[in-house]
Amino acid sequence: MRFNEKELVCLSRQPSEMAAELGMRGPKKGDVVKRRLVKLVVNFLFYFRIDEEEPIGALLLEQCRVEREDSQTFSIAFLDEAERKYLFECDSEEQCKEWTDSIIKASYEFMRRNLIFYRTEIHRLTGKDPLEQYGISDETRFQVNSGSQLMARDTSSL
Amino acid sequence: MKLNERSVAHYATCDSPPDKTGFLFKKGERNTAYHRRWFVLKGNMLFYFEERDSREPIGVIVLEGCTVELCESVEEFAFAIKFDCAKARVYKLAAENQAAMESWVKALSRASFDYMRLVVKELERQLEEIQDAAGAGGQQARPNSRENGVAWSKPPSATANGSAEAAPSCVTWDGCTDAGTVSGCAGDGGRAPPVPPRRLGASLESPVSPDTACFSKLHDWYGREVEELRVQWLQSQ
């Protein structure tokens, strides 16, 4: 599958509050723990060899599950291959918690659910749709009932 | 650079609802012909398939940080996705009619994670204001973090961050995607701590975006960009 690698590498250079050297182990059998610079930017987790400018790889953090493996270790697994886990070793329990919290929130779908929640709640409390004043009430991405949308339908004119 | 391609492709076709789908013509990289492809927009990812019923995407354009512009082209209803990055490729696309073009331009312009994050923050702020006005105290409504397709291997502990303040239903979540935020609720009547300023040195202060202290202003800016494109297009007719 093609992807715009240059732009993704460029994205990896954006400032991020969550960047640290962690022990990282890939999901394949035989993969060992290696020290990597791990950096969270929007919904991507980039990982670099220490002191290298370009990331070795990126993980899109959608449809994934983050789990605490033990007090200082967490894992990321993707829902389509749940047994394959990427493991991350932190230096402290606190750091581990910070990372797991952040990664869970670093998903577009997570944010969308929050938005729908807030929108519904504000509407319930005030009778008003908070998005109306910005003229974005009808945008598909903010819809409460978008679960009924069919994939194949051509929504190009929406 | 590696990418978890299989999982990314899975995201394209899984049952999470897409933000937009439709046929567009895409200009090839070397071969300058336009090919008709089926496009699926999900979040900040624009996937393209050979056919509407293809099982897997041919490719994906990560849209974060992009701008969308109308472009001069032999092809009608054409627009381009551009990036502010050295040697970035320009993706040229064309819709089948004016309505589709406008609709796609609008959708793609607002597809970034950053934009979604701003809207969420704004609504979170509004909700807090409403709840404060209604009187603090009592549990505040929080979304159920389990519904996000993410599960904890152990049930979440109520004592977040090792602090002594136990928050009843406050599961390590406070709706804010800034990693620097202290998560969990404060002990004083359930009010969440104030949201810290946006990430330091963030690109929101970049030349392409105005000061974001005021959401209204930022939102207008996004809207203006789309309006300008619309005017441009109308003038070119």
From TrEMBL, chain A:
PROSITE patterns: PH_DOMAIN. Residues 15-108 form the PH domain. GO terms for biological process: endosome organization; receptor recycling; retrograde transport, endosome to Golgi. CDD domains: PH_PLEKHJ1 (cd13258). SMART domains: PH (SM00233). InterPro entries: Boi1/Boi2-like, PH-like_dom_sf, PH_domain. Pfam families: PH (PF00169). GO terms for cellular component: cytosol; early endosome; recycling endosome; trans-Golgi network. This is Pleckstrin homology domain-containing family J member 1. It comes from Poecilia formosa (Amazon molly).
Automatic annotation (TrEMBL), chain B:
The lineage of its organism: Eukaryota, Metazoa, Chordata, Craniata, Vertebrata. Residues 133-164, 187-209 are annotated as: Disordered. It comes from Poecilia latipinna (sailfin molly). The keyword Phosphoprotein applies. It is found in: Early endosome; Recycling endosome; Golgi apparatus, trans-Golgi network; Cytoplasmic vesicle, Clathrin-coated vesicle. Belongs to the sesquipedalian family. It comes from the Eukaryota. This is Sesquipedalian. One of its GO terms (cellular component) is cytosol. One of its GO terms (biological process) is endosome organization.
